[in-house]
Amino acid sequence: MKITARRLIATTSVVALAASVVLVGGMNSANAATAKPVTGGTLNYYTHAEQFPNLDPQRIYTGRDIAFLGSYVMRTLVSYKPVPGKDGATLVADMATNTGVPSNKAKTWTFTLRPGVSWEDGKPVTCADVKYGWSRTFATDVYVEGPAYPLSWLDIPQAKDGSSAYKGPYKKTGQALFDKSINCSKDNRTITFNLSRTVPDFNYYLTYLAGGPVPQAKDTGDKYDLRPMSSGPYMIKKYAINDEMVLVRNPNWKKSSDPIRTPYPDDIVVTFGMDEDVRDQIDLEDQIPNGINMDGLQPSNNVAFFEDPTKKNRRMNNYDPYTTYLAANNSAGHLDCLDVRKAVFFAFDNQSLIDLSGGLTYYGEMGDNPVKPVIGMDYAPTKGNIHDPNFKIGGNPEYAKTILEKAKTSCPDAYDRATNPAKGLKYYRADTATNKKAAVLVEAALKKAGFVIETVYKPSGTYNANLETYKNETDFLSSGWGADWANASTVIPELWGDGCCNYTKNKKTPEYAGFIKKVNLALVELDRKKQAKMWQELSQYGMDQYWYIRTVFGKSQQTWGSKIGGVYYWEPQGSFGFGQLYVKQ
Amino acid sequence: MFSYVSRRLLYTVILLLIVSLTIFFIFDLIPVDPARLVCSKQCTPSLVEANRHRLGLDVSVFEQWWRFLVGLFAGRTFGEEGIAITCAAPALGYSFSRHECVTTIVAEAFPFTLSLALGAFILWLSVGISLGVLSARKKGKFADRASSVFVLVGTSLPTFISGILVVLFIVLKFNLVNPLELGNWHNPFTDPFGWLQTFFFPCATLALAYAATYTRFTRSNVIETSSEDFIRTARAKGLSEKVILRKHTLRAALAPIVTIAGLDFAGLLGGAIITEGIFGLNGLGKLSIKAVTQTYDLPIIVATTLIASAFVLIMNLIVDIAYAFIDPRVRTS
Question: Does any CB of chain B come closer than 8 Å to the CB of residue A282?
Answer without folding.
Answer: yes
